[in-house]
Amino acid sequence: MNDKIRTNAVDHLFDAILTLNNKEELYTFFEDVCTVNELLSLSQRYEVAKMLREKKTYLEIAEETGASTATISRVNRSLNYGNDGYDLVFKRLGILNKNTAK
């Protein structure tokens, strides 16, 4: 785990997020916390990660999401060398299966 992000402020943010009960509350909170572009960037990275796990090509991902190849490469690095956070979520959502697992 990256010690650079482990701060009291980040802990407080995560504690706040964990209090939210549904998608509508998440929208309300994140619309206040993030700019539209920040939220769209986060969601784009998530979609890129999902598509990479589905074995889509960089070209397919760029065309479908509008992500740059730099963003796709950055997400790919996280999938291959990160903390497996994306895969944890994919498994819990039933998105990751034998064919898409790393």
From TrEMBL:
NCBIfam families xrefs: yecD_yerC (TIGR02531)
InterPro entries: Trp_repress (IPR000831), Trp_repressor/repl_initiator (IPR010921), TrpR-like_sf (IPR038116), YecD_YerC (IPR013368)
Region forming the signal peptide: none
Organism, scientific name: Lachnoanaerobaculum saburreum F0468
GO molecular function: DNA-binding transcription factor activity; sequence-specific DNA binding
The protein's name: TrpR family protein YerC/YecD
Pfam annotation, one family: Trp_repressor
